[in-house]
Every structure is written in C-alpha cells, then in structure tokens.
Amino acid sequence: AAKRSGKGTFRFFNDEMQKELNAAKALEKDIDDAITLGQFKPVFQPQMDALTGRIIGVEVLVRWHHPQRGILLPGDFLDVAANLGRMPEITRLVLDQAFQAASEWKSQGIDFGRIAVNFSGHDLMWNGFFRNIAQLAHEHGLACDHISVEVVESVAIRSDNEQSARALYELRKLGIRIEIDDFGTGFASLSHLNRNLFDRVKVDRQFIANIDTCERSRIIVDSIIRLASALKLEVVAEGMERQEEIDTLLQLGCTQFQGNAIAPPMPRTVAKDWLATHCGTGRLPDALVVETH
Ligand code: C2E
Ligand code: MG
Ligand code: MG
Ligand code: MG
After folding, report:
1. How far does the centroid of ligand 2 lie from the alpha carbon of residue 181, in Å?
2. What's the pTM?
3. pLDDT tens digits, 58-72
4. d(CA 211, CA 208)
C-alpha cells in the first residue's frame, strides 16, 4: 500500500508540473495571436495629491484580453512574454493606445498631470527604445513633459549596465520624468538616489498594506519619506485600500496616493469619466477629504 501511495504521490506531482508546463506553453503559443489581434489593452489608475486636491498622474497597466481565459494580469504573462523576447512589441502596443487616450483627454481639457508608463529591463535594453517613445509621443501630439517612466529598483540602479543608464538619461533630457517603482523591495543602495537621475520614488504596497497597524512598516515608510524629501525627491504611496492606511500616510507627511481606495485601474472609457469628474471640479474622492478647522 505504501508503495502504491508513494507511486501515486509521485505521479500527482508530475501531473501538476506537466499542467504548469502546458499552461506556459499554451500562453507562448497564444502570444503571437494576441499581438496580431490586439488583445493587449491598457487600464488606467489615477494618482492624487491630497495637499492640492489635484490629480497628478495616471499609471498605465497592461491587461491581456484572452479569448478563452478572460482578462489576464501582468503577473500571469509578463515573464513568459519577456522570456520570448516579445516585451518591446507589447510595450509598443500598450503605449500606442495609452498615448492616444492621454492625448485625447488633454485635448478635451482634462488635466490629469502625467501619464506614467512601466518599463522592464528588457525595454530599456531595446536598442533605440527611448527614441521610439519620443517618436510615439510625437505622433500622438503628446508632450514629453506629460510623460513619466517607472522602472523598478533593480533596473534603476543597474549602473553596471551602461545602456539602460544612458536610456534613462536620454529620456530625462527630453523632459520625461523617471521614477523608481516598488521602492524598498529591491537591492538599491540608498546612495543611488543621490545620482540626480530620479524625480520620485513609489513606495511599494508591501509597506502600505496595514501601515496603520504595523509599526515596522510605519518606521520604514517614515524613513523613506524623510530621505526622499531631504534629497528633494517626491514620494507617492502605492496600493492603499483602507481609510486608516491613508490617514496614517497623511500623518507621516505623505500626500501623494495611488491605490484602490482612491480608484482602481480602469478601462479607457471609465477612466476618462472618472478623470473628467475629478480633474474638472477639483473634487477629492471621499477617502481624501481631510477635516479642516
Ligand atoms: P506596479 O507598476 O508596481 O503597478 C502597481 C500594481 O499594484 C498594479 O498591479 C496595480 O493594479 C496594483 N494595485 C494598485 N492599487 C492597488 C490596491 O489598492 N490594492 C492592490 N492589491 N493592488 C493595487 P498589476 O496591474 O497587476 O501590475 C503588476 C506589475 O506589472 C506592475 O507593478 C508593473 O511592474 C508590471 N506592469 C504592468 N503593466 C506593465 C506594462 O505595460 N509594461 C511593463 N513592463 N510592466 C508592466
Ligand atoms: Mg508602476
Ligand atoms: Mg509599484
Ligand atoms: Mg509592482
């Protein structure tokens, strides 16, 4: 019996592994179609500054509208796409749609600040990619000073990698802002912040979730805010879902917010209505209304 169950267990793991492998293989096969058929679409998540009551930016996040599996999140497919070397194409498709939307909103008088796009290490290594962004922005009549680029710490600090450092430098010369995403989760030595290459740090959600009850998170975020402000960098907090998290961040002096408590990532038409409402009137989402005396 023992032998049989051992064998069964072995076969069970094999089946699971085989399933995962097949799923990844199926995705690989689907990516070609997805690119050709335009199944990659942007969603948009607003950023607000509670101090001024203004919308200061909108982050672009990719979604894959898969015909069988529904809407897939970046975590479901970005690694597969990157391993296949298809990220630059996907980035371009998403940017094209996002810049088009941004340009349309601007021309309708919706002042949402900057459109923020995410770049992977692969994107930065793509030869001439920064010229492509500028070109794409130009084609859509979108000024470079209405764009910001987010890179995760590990990419931002890769000073051993001349090509990506140069790409960031070139972007910044165009008026595009550079931000460090998921700040606090990577391996950045804090001295990298002092290179005068970055404009803002985005504090990762792992420190924001439950910041009201977790003292360690509060200490970490407090020190990030102090350091950033001493270096004249802006700080935005990511992923707040509850009022108590917002209140704690305000107490710590963080006033820039991007998270579901303000607004979730939204498809283009929904985002436009949300932005038109909140940009036009300067009306804060309820979560950000601070009592004044
Ligand atoms: P990120 O740039 O740090 O984006 C923020 C992530 O946090 C998004 O996940 C967003 O949906 C999620 N988020 C925002 N507010 C909340 C909240 O209140 N609660 C929770 N639980 N989550 C919240 P998403 O869309 O799954 O994207 C994951 C990551 O994938 C992004 O992290 C970014 O690194 C990457 N990514 C997304 N779109 C693109 C893209 O077009 N190109 C590249 N290269 N990477 C992308
Ligand atoms: Mg980001
Ligand atoms: Mg992030
Ligand atoms: Mg992230």
Report:
1. 5
2. 0.90
3. 999 999 999 999 999
4. 5
